[in-house]
Amino acid sequence: MKLGITITNFSWPGPASAMGPNIERIARTADEAGVDSIWTMDHFFQIRATGQPPEAPMLEAYATLGFIAGNTRRIRLGTLVTSVAYRHPGVLIKIVTSLDVLSGGRMVLGVGAGAPFNIDPAHPTGDNEVGGLGLPFPSLSDRFECLEELLRIAHQMWRGDEAPFTGKHYRMTRPLNSPNVLQHPHPPILIGGGGERKTLRLVARYADACNLFDLPGSGFQHDLPHKLRVLADRCREVGRDPREIEKTTTSLFDPGDDPPAAADRLVEHLGDLAAIGIDHAIVTPSRAWDVETLETVVARVADVHRIDVATAPV
Question: Which terminal Cβ of the chain has fewer Cβ within 10 Å, N or C?
Fold first, then answer.
């Protein structure tokens, strides 16, 4: 089993000038310990799911990944996940391509439709980034259409096809991408979410990985085997082997008062996830990473790597 970590909580004590050294320490520690991946959350305001207010510190995802890339050598990099509404597809593919080139071929494109609800454009609220920053945010149904077009554009640009692209939502007269990515045929594409009618169909058709939620209150924590069976069904519908798709989950780690004991429970839980076919567990801490919590988790990398993953449903 693979092990990843997120950096999504930037509420360390001290001034903003301490953020860079903190992130550098986390990234270098994870990289040197053999952690497989490191992920940022693509939001501009902090989200309430972290237990913090919108005013809590939040760094832009791709700038942060560029900083992490410059301080690491082998760990994979990505977002969990970029909403299709937040960047034009051509610009997003240029960003990910640039980071792939500069990192030596370590980027993952993590994308999704964004928040699974509609925001009233006539009454936006300053408590979220959409209203606060005035970001365009189409309806959920339109965002799913945009997401499929983004996935088509990604495949086209990464195979070097400069033919005009004409979709319902995006038009590109020359999707030039120079230089192109180092990974071949392209960086892995990960789609976040467990929606059975749309999201998992897009995973089966276009993606190399999915990200399902193993977080308390997410609605998916006790439904992962079902989601994997649905994904297998969607793969069959398009003639694809579901074993080609990496199954990832985002799992919470709460160190509590006894981090080593909590790490033992985490490894046991990841074994349970592997038994149902999860390939890659991405751990997010219940608070901002501190030295003890980080070192406790990375000390278990070898234990996690020894976990055998069950064959995916077919």
Answer: C
